[in-house]
Amino acid sequence: MKGQEWYQADSVAEEYDAKRFSKGGRLIDRREKRAVLEALAPVEDERVLEIACGTGRFTVMLAERGADIVGLDISDAMLAQGREKARRAGLADTVEFMRGDAARLPFPDDHFDAVFAMRFFHLADTPAKFLAEMARVSKDVVFFDTFRGSSFRTLYNWALPMGSRLYSREEVERLIDGAGLSLRQDDHDFVFPYGFYREVPNSVADPFWSLDQAIGGNAVGEKLSSVSYWTAEV
């Protein structure tokens, strides 16, 4: 997995949310949470597994909406942040966080109603293996996002500390088919990449987001989008 040492550092976990979801990054957080909710809804009383849960921003959000959720991550430091987030939300006894390997999930077949991973597949060295495991333990929905190769993402990808794997639509469709899944829906966003939004104030991000959606709302715009959301079913 790319950047494991970087990702698991205590300092990275402590600053992760503040660096990525302040300023214009708040818009990214809102959009990603909406994508997860749209893919998994309704979540109340559903058994959900989040792969690479990080600091638990999706885990806690879904628990607040009544999901029976497990958050799995390889980083103890990230899991500690997630547990603290759950504690502050009054959900410490509701959400389960556990350390584990996404390539060997410690659950039986069809154990969850839905399995999802956000900000994960751009780091995956063996994406087919990870997706097959997600499909194995889900009895309904598998949801994940990818970064696209035909986008502005390529312009700053080299500067990221852990690198980033970029995907074409054809590659993702092959992965989905290879995991025995069927594509239910795909959505594409962020012609202006994440790095741009994180650098501008929140008040500036919103007008650019409107322009972003206008550009991305057609076939050409889809090809320029830097992020894709994939909802598949077993």
UniProtKB/TrEMBL annotation:
Its EC number is 2.1.1.-. GO terms for biological process: methylation. It comes from the Archaea. Pfam families: Methyltransf_25. Keywords: Methyltransferase, Transferase. Gene3D superfamilies: Vaccinia Virus protein VP39. The keyword Lyase does not apply. GO terms for molecular function: methyltransferase activity. InterPro entries: Methyltransf_25 (IPR041698), SAM-dependent_MTases_sf (IPR029063). Signal peptide: none annotated. Residues 48-139 form the Methyltransferase domain. CDD domains: AdoMet_MTases. SUPFAM superfamilies: S-adenosyl-L-methionine-dependent methyltransferases (SSF53335). The keyword Transferase applies. This is Class I SAM-dependent methyltransferase. It comes from Halobaculum lipolyticum.
